[in-house]
Amino acid sequence: MLGHPAGLLADHVADALSQAGPEVLIIGAGPAGLTAATYLARFRRRVMVADGGAPRASWIPVSHNLPGFPQGITGDAIIRRMTEQALEFDAVIEPGRVETLEREGEGFKARLNGRVVSARAVLLATGVTDHHPDLPGVERGIERGLVRICPICDGYEAIDKAVAIIGKDDRGVREAAFLRTYSGQVTLIHVGAAEALTEEDELRRMGVELIRAPIDNVRLEGDRVTALSWGGAFRVFDLVYSALGTSPNAELAQALGAAVGEDGCMIVDAHQATSVTGLFAAGDVVRGLNQIAVAGAEAAIAATAIHNDLREADGWTVDPANANDPEP
Fold first, then answer.
1. In this structure, are residues 132 and 36 in contact, taking their beta carbons and an 8 Å threshold?
2. pTM value?
3. Average pLDDT of the chain to the nearest whole number
4. Which of 47, 146, 194, 219: disulfide with 40, CB 3.0–4.6 Å?
């Protein structure tokens, strides 16, 4: 089952905010959003998480590089545990997508499930959307680990395997180069425009096979991808990677005028603050390495910065000029 335990959510949404609305609204219930929710709830902040549905992490068949799980852990289990932890400290997690986000005085107002939710600060943890290859059964293939999207996460499992990378530009070349250190059987299937591939010499130098052809069909059988056909001729691979890129889910922030990079990802400072006062961002929607461990770290930084900003606004900080020790 993907997503979050429905019973736990329903119990909390009904009563946890009955006395007052949230101080902090977190948009997104993946690893970054849930980590921030736990931190803020333990800071005794009223926090609501808008859960827009099964996050990208839910598609992970087994993660072997998340610290603390030497035998690996499924993406669904990661999200379930993080959800339970946030709820343990009375964070509110409400299913639904935030439709609009606007300024309201010094804070914000969001439209969620047909009503307006006001908050003093907002954390965007909306992640990215993967560009999947147009293949039948691709989402199920990702869940089974046969079609993969993150060589940093699971390149180790590609050691000495027959690996195909589906690409449309030089991103595919870079991914093939990365995976070449794990296997000598790496093939780049270029499905984009011919002029979009400019590093063909590098593929030859590294011993990566190049196929320039659209994919006609795909087969997923057992634990192998018997897989990709060109003109009816099938080639067998152990693993298939998609190197078609992602799109950041940053529309809400852009509507507020927040700065984004050329890739569309949010630009933040050392405290995860965006260019809009009171608006923070963490996780894959931010420029950087898309990893659960990184998302959690960014969320911890953002949550602590939000808490300290609110303390300062409420007069619960000490002027450093009058203090012997720095603020935490």
1. no
2. 0.89
3. 88
4. 47
Burial of 126 (0-12, 13-18, 19+ CB in 10 A): buried
Nearest in space to 126 (alpha carbons), one of 266, 238, 237, 321: 266
Other CB atoms within a 10 A radius of the CB of residue 102 amount to 12
pLDDT tens-digit map of 41-61: 999 999 999 999 989 899 888
Closest CA to 172 of 84, 257, 240, 260: 240
* Distance between first and last Cα of the chain: 40
Domain 132-243: give its CATH architecture: 3-Layer(bba) Sandwich (3.50)
**What is the location of CATH 3.50.50.60 in the chain?**
6-129+246-322, 132-243
* Residue range 162-178: mean pLDDT, rounded: 95
3-state secondary structure 264-299: CCECCCCCCECCCCCEEECCCCECCCCCHHHHHHHH
Cβ contact 234:219 at 8 Å: yes
Beta carbons within 8 Å of 216's beta carbon, 6+ residues apart: 229, 230, 231, 232
- Name residue 104's beta-bridge partners: 107
pLDDT at 4 over 80: no
Q: Per-residue pLDDT averaged across 220-247, rounded? A: 75
Which is the CATH superfamily of the domain at 6-129+246-322?
FAD/NAD(P)-binding domain (3.50.50.60)
pLDDT at 328: 62
Question: Nearest CA to 28 among 284, 294, 304?
Answer: 284
Instruction: Report the Cα 233 to chain-centroid distance in Å.
Output: 36
Query: 2 is written with which tokens?
Result: 């993907």
Mean pLDDT along residues 267-276: 98
